[in-house]
Design brief:
mainly alpha, 20 helices, disordered N terminus
Length: 526
């Protein structure tokens, strides 16, 4: 156990660096969503935009994000370990050439087939021809975004492998910045005005790509158009990417199912769900995705060197550290859901009724936040082992479960029922991943240590949970951020929650807190 601590210190440092970048990016994303809801509210036009944005984003995740990095990092790691840097660079160039070629062709095809894609994602819009037509046009304008973000994901995989995490994580905030500027300053220049969002995403996406070139030239080299299909590892990579696409399909089918169900509900439902989900994305991106990105290169190297006990310790530390940060966050969101949504969104065209629906949806999604965080880390183990079959099976199970529960609950609970369906589905997927894990990493996971740590975290959350339960009753949340009382309660609650949690955690001698304190002291001393 002692041997793994230095290596995990490196992972933890990468986690904090990556999380700082992700945090800045996600905060800008939150500001972007606040601006969008302020100017457009929760209307059917806003719903049309979010459906149009979801379609290319969903296809992007088939080959980008964790899917591409999960296949790319192990391939580059194994190639460099066995054949050296020139071979690894040739492999990276070939992957880049294939990726960009396929995505260009795919994007053109999807622009042509946009009406059929909208039917799949929002068949409820067929009853409103004008809304359907608007959604199709927005989808076509947004599809080039898939190539931009996939290029960024390729760069992120390479840079993460070279232990560089900050710029790849902060760069997406540039996209949000583009949207904020276009909507705030040029809102009235577009007809209809919703196209200001499209312009912001495309301009921000271009800058997003350009920023990646700086660290790529410093830590690796600029990707080139080169092709070497004869390399056995290329053939293996392409085979594994086929599985990644299927895994992405199952993962994103959840989004397709939930958006489609929401399209049959009342106007604004898609926006309510999207807004609640974005609040969760803020913390999930900073904590869960930050740790998953940091630990992926370590997992890949442990597998390449067959250091199973090191991988086990890396995994255990990752799960406990993520839970240490994320569980109190989930508790805060669960008890303080209405004040959070009110302060952030209850102004402009976003009404108090919209606030209440979004707050309830957020509350029911908090279990999803915890489950998907565990899944994000556990999936990295399977990616490191090039085991996509387990991901395919569990992903397919999750889609069926989400669709079944969501269909049953939509009419009874509205969009909140979709949140319940997602939370239940991801929880059972997490259990399946953990059940299969011991055989996969070839070393016994010490669940007792993990559970003891988690219990201490739960205890540390009790004082501020009680405080939040009573403090929420004193606010006039229909006034949103315009109330001095609301702002005071919000600030006091945030400060009390953080301080009380860390004090109790310190006296409970939580090992995760001690590791973090030691790391900061080490950094402080230089």
């Amino acid at each position: 156990m002692e041997q793994s601590k230095p290596s995990f210190g490196i992972i933890l440092k990468a986690f904090f660096v990556g999380s700082m970048g992700t945090g800045l990016s996600r905060i800008l994303g939150m500001v972007r969503d606040v601006v969008i809801t302020h100017f457009f509210g929760a209307s059917k036009v806003t719903d049309a935009f979010w459906i149009a944005y979801t379609i290319p984003s969903t296809f992007r995740r088939f080959v980008a994000d964790e899917g591409l990095t999960g296949a790319l990092i192990p391939a580059i790691s194994q190639e460099e370990t066995k054949n050296g840097k020139p071979a690894a660079r040739l492999l990276g160039d070939t992957i880049f050439t294939i990726l960009m070629s396929v995505l260009t062709i795919f994007s053109i095809a999807c622009i042509i087939w946009a009406p059929y894609l909208v039917r799949v994602f929002a068949s409820g819009y067929l009853k409103d021809p004008e809304l359907f037509k608007l959604t199709v046009h927005l989808t076509r304008w947004l599809f080039p975004f898939i190539a931009m973000v996939s290029f960024v994901s390729f760069c992120e995989g390479i840079l993460n492998y070279r232990n560089h995490f900050f710029i790849p994580k902060i760069a997406p905030g540039i996209v949000s910045g583009g949207v904020i500027i276009c909507v705030s300053l040029f809102y009235q220049l577009f007809h209809p005005s919703i196209y200001a969002l499209v312009a912001g995403f495309l301009i921000g996406g271009c800058i997003h790509c350009l920023i990646q070139l700086i660290p790529m030239s410093l830590y690796w080299y600029l990707p080139r158009i080169r092709f070497s299909i004869s390399n056995p590892r290329i053939q293996f990579f392409l085979k594994e990417m086929g599985k990644v696409i299927l895994i992405g399909l199952f993962a994103q089918l959840n989004i397709v199912v939930l958006r489609n169900l929401a399209s049959f509900h009342s106007p604004g439902s898609v926006t309510h769900y999207q807004t609640a989900n974005r609040i969760l994305d803020l913390m999930q991106g900073i904590i869960a995705i930050g740790m998953a990105s940091a630990v992926m290169p370590a997992f890949a190297k442990s597998v390449a060197l067959k250091e199973w006990y090191k991988m086990r310790d890396q995994l255990q530390h990752s799960l406990t550290v993520v839970f240490f940060f994320l569980f109190p966050t989930a508790v805060f969101l669960f008890f303080f859901n209405k004040p959070i949504v009110s302060i952030l969104f209850c102004h402009g065209h976003f009404t108090y009724d919209d606030t209440l629906i979004t707050a309830t949806t957020l509350q029911f999604m908090t279990p999803f936040l915890l489950s998907v965080a565990g899944i994000n880390i556990l999936k990295k183990v399977y990616f490191a082992f090039d085991n996509r079959n387990t991901l395919l099976f569990i992903g397919g199970f999750g889609v069926v479960l989400t669709a079944s529960i969501g269909f049953l609950l939509l009419n009874k609970m509205g969009v909140s029922g979709l949140a319940v369906a997602l939370s239940i589905s991801t929880f059972f997927q997490l259990l399946l991943y953990m059940f299969r894990l011991n055989k996969q990493i070839k070393s016994i996971i010490q669940y007792k240590q993990i559970v003891v740590s988690w219990i201490k975290v739960v205890i540390a959350c009790i004082p501020f949970s009680v405080f939040l339960f009573f403090s929420i009753r004193f606010g006039t949340w229909e006034l949103g951020i315009g109330s001095f009382l609301n702002n005071s309660i919000f600030i006091i609650s945030v400060i009390f929650s953080m301080v009380s949690f860390f004090i109790v955690a310190y006296y409970l001698k939580l090992s995760e807190l001690q590791i973090i304190i030691k790391l900061f002291n080490k950094i402080k001393k230089g």
